[in-house]
Amino acid sequence: MATAELCRRHGLSPASFYKLKSKYGGMEVSEAARLKALEDENARLKRLLADTMLDNVVLKDLLGKG
User: Fold this and answer.
1) What tens digit of pLDDT does each residue of 24-50 get?
2) Domains in the chain, number
3) In angstroms, how far is CA 60 from the centroid of its own chain?
């Protein structure tokens, strides 16, 4: 099946297809699932760090003005 036909059937642009292919091309399903889990955990940790840094700034502002 041609790439254009495959993309059309799944509602995907060819550019997105090739981007995903370059990212997940040689992986097994379990490896792709593990990568997704690591990306989710990384995003969660980044949010926690941002929240902690914001709390730190607020505390410094309160202590500086008090």
Assistant:
1) 899 999 999 999 999 999 999 999 999
2) 1
3) 31
According to DSSP, residue 66 is labeled: -
Distance (Å, whole) CA 23 – CA 31: 12
Question: Residue 62 corresponds to which tokens in the numbers above?
Answer: 């309160």
Domain that holds residue 53: 3-65
Nearest to 35 by CA among 23, 44, 46, 18: 23
Decide: 14 and 24 in contact? Cβ < 8 Å.
no
3-state secondary structure of 25: coil
| The pLDDT of residue 66 | 56
Contact status, residue 19 vs residue 29, Cβ threshold 8 Å:
no
Count of beta carbons in the 10 Å neighbourhood of residue 18: 13
- Look up tokens 């502002």; give the residue: 61
